[in-house]
Design goal:
75 residues, mainly alpha, 4 helices
C-alpha cells in the first residue's frame, strides 16, 4: 500500500461507520473496471444538462458561492 493510500485510510478510520461504508463502496466501484456505470435518475440527468448549458453560457459560481457550498460540508 502506498503512503498516500495509508494516509487516506487513517483519515477514513476517524469517520463514522456509515461514512466509512460509503467511502468503501465508492473505492470498490472505482477499483472495479468491470462494473457498469451508476445509472442516473431523470432529475440527475436534467441537473447535469442544466449545468452544462449554464457553463456553455459562461455562467459560473462566484468564489463566495463556492466557499458557501463547501462550508455546508464542514470545509
Amino acid at each position: 500500500m502506498t503512503k498516500l493510500l495509508e494516509k487516506a485510510v487513517e483519515r477514513v478510520r476517524a469517520l463514522t461507520p456509515d461514512h466509512q461504508d460509503e467511502l468503501a463502496r465508492l473505492l470498490l466501484r472505482l477499483a472495479d473496471a468491470e462494473q457498469e456505470p451508476v445509472p442516473l435518475s431523470a432529475s440527475e440527468r436534467a441537473a447535469i444538462a442544466a449545468s452544462k448549458a449554464a457553463a456553455a453560457r459562461g455562467e459560473f459560481a462566484t468564489d463566495e458561492e463556492v466557499q458557501a457550498a463547501w462550508a455546508g460540508f464542514g470545509r
